[in-house]
Backbone:
C-alpha cells in the first residue's frame, strides 16, 4: 500500500484531536499532496452534521483511480464501492444483485484482482486501481477477449450477471492466462447465473484463454 | 436497495497496530474492528449491529503476511484466505490449513476475507442473524432449539440453551494443527491455544471467542509439531461455493509402518466450538490404519451426539467423514 492513505488516515486522526488546529491539518494535507481543497474541508461537516464531531474519521472527498481515470468523489464512511460506482460515478455496468456477497453481479477488479464491490468500502480503495466492465475496452474501443469469447459462445442469456462474469474471467486470465477447465470453473464459482448459462460462460473463458488473453491491455493498466 | 444501506459509522483507518489498539481501547464497546468485512457488512446492512466507530485494520501492515520462525510459522491475522491458500510454505508443510482455506465461501470472498476474521466471525444461526432477541442476543429464549424450528444447520453436541455452531472452516484445521492465537490489547499481550480460543455457550453465550472488546487477534502461530503430517480435510455443504459446512472434519495423523502413532481430529459445524474428537484420537493411537480402525473411529466420533428436529443427518455424516479421515479416504 502506498504511503498516501496512511498519511491521510494519520492526518484525519490528528484533525479529530482538539489540540490540533484546523490550520495545521490543512497544512499537513497540502504538504502530503492529498488534494482536499479548503472549501471541501469546511463545507463537508455542514453537509453532514453527524460527521462534525467525529474523532479521527476519514475525510469525505476522495480521489479514486477508476478505469485509468482520476475521479474525485464525495464518499460516506459506510459507502460501498458498488454504490459509489453506480450512483456517484454513473458506472452502471457494475450490477447489484444481492448486496450480500452471495451472487457476484457486482464483481470488479481492484489492482487486477476480483472483488465484490457490494462488500468493499470505497474508503478502502482510495489508492487502488479499480477496473469495471466499462474499463475493459481496448484503446480503439475493441472488446476485451473475454467479451468477444462470451459473445461467440453465447454466454449471456438475460445478461444481468454478465458484467460480473466478465470481470471474474478477466481477473482469472490476468493471473493465469492458460487455466485448465477445472481451474476456470473454480475461479468462476463466485458468480451466480440465474439463467444457468454456466457452461457457456466456461466455454467462453476457455476460448478467451486460447485466443490470447495475453494481449489484454486494460485501459487502467496501460 | 436503500433499505439495505448501512447506517452511519465513523471510519477510522489506523496505520499501525499501536494506533489501532489505542482507538479500540478509547472507543470501547462502541468500536468494531473491520477485517475483510464479509461477516461485518451482513450485520451492518441488516442493522443487526450498529457500531458507532469502525476501525479498519487494512492499513496495519504488521498484521499481514506469513513469516517463518522458531520451529513453525506465524500468520498475521489480516492475511487473506487466498494468500493463506496460495502460500508455498503452508501448501507444502501445513496443507491442512491451505485445504480448509480453499473451501471457504467463494473466490472473491477469499480475496478479501482474512484468516483472523474467519476465526472471529459470529455464528450463522439465522434466527440470531435476522435480529431475534434470543439468548445469544441477550434475550431469554432459543428460537432454533424450539420444536419444529429450522435447525438443520445446528448443533449435535454441547448445546447449552444456544444450539448454534461454529461457522468457520479454518478453525477446525487450526485446532488440529495445535495453533496458538496471539492476542493483544493496549496494555496486554497473551497467547491462547486455538483449542481454548473459542467460547462455549455455557461460559459466555453472547461471545464466540475469548477476545475482550479491547483485544485484537494479531497473529496465529502454527508450531512445527504437525508439519508435513498426513492431512485430511473434508467439508460437506449444500453447495460447493458460498455455503457454510454442515459438517467438516480436519485431521492430522502420523503413522509408522501403517500403525497410527498420533492423531488430531477436529470436527466443524457440529458444536458451538470446533469439536476436538479426543475419544477418537485416543482410540486410534497404536492401531493399524485400516477399515476396522476407521469403523471404530466413526462410532467413537458420534458417541453422545444429540440431534434436534431436523439435523439427525449430521450424525451419520460425521461418522462417515471421520471414518474416511482415519482410513485415509
Ligand atoms: C456468502 C458468504 C459465504 C460464506 N461462506 C463461508 C464458508 O463456507 N466457510 C467459512 O469459514 N466462512 C464463510 N463465510 C464467512 C467468511 O469467510 C467470513 O465472514 C470471513 O472469513 C470473515 O473474515 P473477514 O476478514 O471478512 O472478517 P470481518 O467481517 O471483517 O470480521 C469478522 C468479525 O471478526 C472481528 N475481527 C476481524 N478481525 C479481527 C481481529 N484481527 N481481531 C479481533 N477481531 C477481529 C470483526 O470485528 C468481526 O466481528 C462466508 C461469508 C459470506 C458472506
Ligand atoms: S441457536 Fe443460539 S443463536 Fe440461534 S436462536 Fe438459539 S440462542 Fe440464538
Ligand atoms: S451484489 Fe455483490 S455479490 Fe451480489
Ligand atoms: S445470463 Fe441471466 S443471470 Fe446469467
Residues:
Amino acid at each position: 500500500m502506498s504511503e498516501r492513505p496512511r498519511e491521510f488516515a494519520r492526518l484525519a486522526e490528528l484533525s479529530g484531536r482538539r489540540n490540533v488546529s484546523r490550520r495545521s491539518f490543512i497544512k499537513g494535507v497540502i504538504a502530503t499532496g492529498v488534494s482536499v481543497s479548503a472549501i471541501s474541508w469546511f463545507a463537508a461537516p455542514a453537509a453532514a452534521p453527524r460527521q462534525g464531531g467525529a474523532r479521527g474519521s476519514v475525510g469525505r472527498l476522495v480521489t479514486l483511480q477508476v478505469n485509468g481515470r482520476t475521479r474525485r468523489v464525495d464518499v460516506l464512511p459506510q459507502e460501498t464501492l458498488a454504490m459509489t460506482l453506480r450512483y456517484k460515478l454513473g458506472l452502471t455496468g457494475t450490477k447489484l444483485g444481492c448486496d450480500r456477497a452471495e451472487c457476484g453481479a457486482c464483481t470488479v477488479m481492484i489492482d487486477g484482482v476480483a472483488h465484490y464491490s457490494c462488500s468493499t468500502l470505497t474508503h478502502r480503495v482510495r489508492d487502488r486501481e479499480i477496473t469495471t466492465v466499462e474499463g475493459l475496452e481496448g484503446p480503439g474501443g475493441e472488446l476485451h477477449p473475454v467479451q468477444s469469447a462470451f459473445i461467440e459462445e453465447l454466454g449471456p442469456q438475460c445478461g444481468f450477471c454478465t458484467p460480473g462474469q466478465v470481470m471474474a474471467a478477466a481477473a482469472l486470465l490476468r493471473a493465469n492466462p492458460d487455466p485448465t477447465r477445472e481451474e476456470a470453473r473454480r475461479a468462476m464459482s463466485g458468480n451466480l447465473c440465474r439463467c444457468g448459462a454456466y457452461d457457456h460462460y466456461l466455454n467462453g473463458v476457455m476460448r478467451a484463454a486460447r485466443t490470447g488473453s495475453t494481449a489484454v491491455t486494460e485501459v487502467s493498466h496501460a | 436497495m436503500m433499505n439495505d444501506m448501512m447506517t452511519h459509522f465513523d471510519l477510522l483507518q489506523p496505520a499501525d497496530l499501536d494506533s489501532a489498539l489505542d482507538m479500540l481501547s478509547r472507543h470501547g464497546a462502541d468500536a468494531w474492528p473491520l477485517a475483510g468485512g464479509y461477516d461485518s457488512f451482513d450485520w451492518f446492512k441488516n442493522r443487526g449491529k450498529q457500531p458507532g466507530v469502525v476501525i479498519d485494520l487494512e492499513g496495519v501492515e504488521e498484521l499481514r503476511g506469513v513469516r517463518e520462525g522458531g520451529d513453525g510459522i506465524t500468520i498475521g491475522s489480516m492475511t487473506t484466505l487466498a494468500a493463506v491458500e496460495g502460500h508455498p510454505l503452508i501448501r507444502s508443510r501445513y496443507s491442512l490449513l491451505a485445504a480448509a482455506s480453499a473451501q471457504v465461501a467463494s473466490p472473491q470472498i477469499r480475496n478479501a476475507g482474512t484468516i483472523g476474521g474467519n476465526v472471529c466471525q459470529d455464528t450463522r444461526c439465522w434466527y440470531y442473524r435476522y435480529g431475534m432477541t434470543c439468548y445469544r442476543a441477550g434475550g431469554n429464549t432459543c428460537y432454533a432449539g424450539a420444536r419444529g424450528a429450522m435447525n438443520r444447520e445446528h448443533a449435535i453436541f454441547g448445546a447449552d440453551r444456544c444450539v448454534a455452531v461454529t461457522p468457520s472452516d479454518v478453525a477446525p484445521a487450526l485446532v488440529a494443527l495445535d495453533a496458538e492465537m496471539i492476542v493483544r490489547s493496549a496494555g496486554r499481550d497473551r497467547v491462547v491455544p486455538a483449542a481454548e480460543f473459542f467460547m462455549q455457550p455455557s461460559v459466555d453465550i453472547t461471545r464466540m471467542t475469548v477476545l475482550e472488546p479491547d483485544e485484537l487477534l494479531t497473529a496465529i502461530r502454527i508450531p512445527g509439531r504437525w508439519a508435513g503430517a498426513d492431512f485430511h480435510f473434508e467439508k460437506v455443504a449444500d453447495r460447493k461455493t458460498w455455503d457454510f459446512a454442515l459438517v467438516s472434519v480436519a485431521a492430522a495423523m502420523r503413522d509408522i509402518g501403517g500403525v497410527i502413532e498420533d492423531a488430531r481430529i477436529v470436527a466443524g459445524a457440529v458444536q458451538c466450538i470446533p469439536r476436538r474428537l479426543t475419544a477418537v484420537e485416543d482410540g486410534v493411537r497404536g492401531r493399524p490404519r485400516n477399515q476396522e480402525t476407521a469403523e471404530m473411529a466413526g462410532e467413537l466420533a458420534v458417541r453422545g451426539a444429540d440431534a434436534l428436529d431436523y439435523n439427525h443427518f449430521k450424525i451419520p455424516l460425521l461418522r462417515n467423514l471421520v471414518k474416511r479421515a482415519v482410513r485415509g479416504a
